[in-house]
Amino acid sequence: MAKSKQQQEAHGIGQIEHQLNNQMEAAAEIQGQSKLDQEIKKATHRHLNQSNEHSE
């Protein structure tokens, strides 16, 4: 069965987020992470965890 357009878009967004996260981690390994980058990453993970809890 074909996925709905919204499901396809959500899957694409997830792939983009995953790729950007990988790029961010690679850059951090090469350059080191700034304090601001670390705080943004923590906040993002908290937000994602809260979103996942509410959607279940």
Q: Report the principal-axis shape.
A: flat
How widely separated are the two ends? 24 Å
How would a textbook summarize the main sheet?
A: none
Average pLDDT number: 80
* Percent of residues in helices: over 70%
Q: How many domains make up the coordinates?
A: 1
Low-confidence stretches: none
What proportion of the residues form beta strands (DSSP E)? under 5%
Order of helices and strands: HH
Provide the structure class: mainly alpha
Helix segment count? 2
Q: What's the count of strands?
A: 0
Radius of gyration: 15 Å
Region (Disordered): 1-56
Structure description:
It is a single chain. The chain has helices at 5-31, 35-55. It has 56 residues and is mainly α. It has one domain (3-54). The chain starts with a helix and ends with a helix. The mean pLDDT is 80.
Any key phrases for this structure?
single chain, mainly alpha, 2 helices, 56 residues
What can be said about this structure in brief?
With 56 residues, the chain is mainly alpha-helical. It has helices spanning 5-31, 35-55.
Give the SSE map.
Blueprint: H1 5-31, H2 35-55
